[in-house]
Write a structure and sequence with these properties.
Elements (H helix, E strand, L loop, with lengths): L11 E2 L6 E2 L33
Antiparallel strand pairs: 1-2
Keywords: Signal
InterPro entries: Cuticlin (IPR051962), ZP-C (IPR055355), ZP_dom (IPR001507)
Protein name: ZP domain-containing protein
Length: about 55
């Protein structure tokens, strides 16, 4: 689940749950041809009590 819904929406998952995708608005800066994004991903298994807040 994204931390800030204003920046990135909810992920959509492939039918077999092996791929997750999300679209978001990109930015363009006039002084550079490249923009780098960094994100942290936390994987968890939804078996038993894991990932209750996910």
């Amino acid at each position: 689940c994204p931390v800030d819904g204003e920046i990135m929406g909810q992920f959509t998952y492939s039918e077999d749950k092996t791929e997750a995708k999300v679209n978001f608005q990109a930015h363009k800066f006039p002084y550079t041809a490249s923009v780098y994004y960094q994100c942290n991903v936390r994987l968890c298994s939804k078996h038993g009590e894991g990932c209750e807040d996910t």
